[in-house]
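Usage example:
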Amino acid sequence: GQNIDQPTEMTATEGAIVQINCTYQTSGFNGLFWYQQHAGEAPTFLSYNVLDGLEEKGRFSSFLSRSKGYSYLLLKELQMKDSASYLCAFMDSNYQLIWGAGTKLIIKP
Amino acid sequence: IAGITQAPTSQILAAGRRMTLRCTQDMRHNAMYWYRQDLGLGLRLIHYSNTAGTTGKGEVPDGYSVSRANTDDFPLTLASAVPSQTSVYFCASSTGQGPYNEQFFGPGTRLTVL
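Running the assembly step on the lines above writes:
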């Protein structure tokens, strides 16, 4: 079967670093996506990993380990505007995205 | 138009009524998708289309139908709405199907079925 899991909610302090984990199980894998979704808005693309390792994009980085079925999103120098839900999704063998329920990130001043 | 638009923004509908949610994109993307998003659950795929003239069923297709007469439009129809179809519906598109193809989302339609 297929499944994907991420924490429901996390809290962090402005200016700090936070790591949001995502674990998945699937027999067919074509990459892992991270999206950001502010309350009441549409998801927007953050990153895509298909090979093992770390991809860095400004304050955001994403890591993938295919052998462990594990990814994380790292957010540095947190800003209040980073308060949002972060969705991870893997692409299965049919090229469909299987989505986690999202991690709500609360940033405190 | 820039990107993907959806209409209506929100709707309250009586159970048993027929409803069509509209989705239009101007990016000339081949693939389009309809998802529903419910509290505590991940986005769930309802139907998809890899290219104009073709459609496929996703994870939760029952009670919904779609058509793809051209590249730009991908309407979703609820033939006879039921309260369990109360949800936020997102339309999305991508250049194609396959790895590296990120999906772009419309602003969503909030539907309440009473």
